[in-house]
């Protein structure tokens, strides 16, 4: 599948001029994003499936932005169970959200037009035993120019790279209509000031 998409966004915020102590005028921010993309997929059959989608910003505020996402799985029978091995990947280059770049309020006010694009890459793998209800997933993320709200509740952009390693174990049990679904997740961030994560959830 090939596609072209257009998205129009309009943001209205108060401007810096007060009339009788009240912000009456408005600042308007308009964004036009035009993307072209392609999708390849195989969903039929029982053994091998894949799905990949990529898009590239062509015009307007989408210029310089892109994303590529893909997943593939292999299924096979083993001792009466169906086992699945899944690989997935994600690469993106995108602007920080509008409200990280511009926000006008009574208590906070910022305009960060100099923020760089956020570049993120993610690789992951997953093992699933469907009859047993068991799943093990491991993901590795790398984020450059991660943007977040700092201690003063103002946007900050981390200029370096942040790595995130996560592992997830799922074990589900069921007896008739009774189901018990359990999930344990461990995450480690290389920069706990910019991106703090719970060690165990």
Describe the structure.
There is one protein chain. The chain has 201 residues and is an all-beta fold. It is built from one helix and 15 strands, in the order E-E-E-E-E-E-E-H-E-E-E-E-E-E-E-E. It has one helix at residues 98-101, and strands spanning 2-14, 18-19, 22-23, 26-42, 48-60, 66-78, 81-94, 102-104, 109-111, 118-129, 134-144, 147-149, 155-157, 161-175, 178-189. Strand 8 (102-104) and strand 9 (109-111) form a beta hairpin. It is globular and about 75 Å long.
Structure summary:
The chain has one helix spanning 98-101; strands spanning 2-14, 18-19, 22-23, 26-42, 48-60, 66-78, 81-94, 102-104, 109-111, 118-129, 134-144, 147-149, 155-157, 161-175, 178-189. The protein has 201 residues and is mainly beta. The model has no long low-confidence stretch (mean pLDDT 92).
Sequence-ordered SSE layout with sheet pairings:
Layout: E1 2-14, E2 18-19, E3 22-23, E4 26-42, E5 48-60, E6 66-78, E7 81-94, H1 98-101, E8 102-104, E9 109-111, E10 118-129, E11 134-144, E12 147-149, E13 155-157, E14 161-175, E15 178-189
Antiparallel strand pairs: 1-4, 2-3, 4-5, 5-6, 6-7, 7-10, 8-9, 10-11, 11-14, 12-13, 14-15
**Treating each run of at least 4 consecutive H or I residues as one helix, how many helices?**
1
Strand order of the largest sheet: 1-4-5-6-7-10-11-14-15
Oligomer: single chain
Which runs of at least 5 residues are low in confidence (pLDDT < 50)? none
The arrangement of helices and strands along the chain is EEEEEEEHEEEEEEEE
Helix content: under 10%
Arithmetic mean of pLDDT: 92
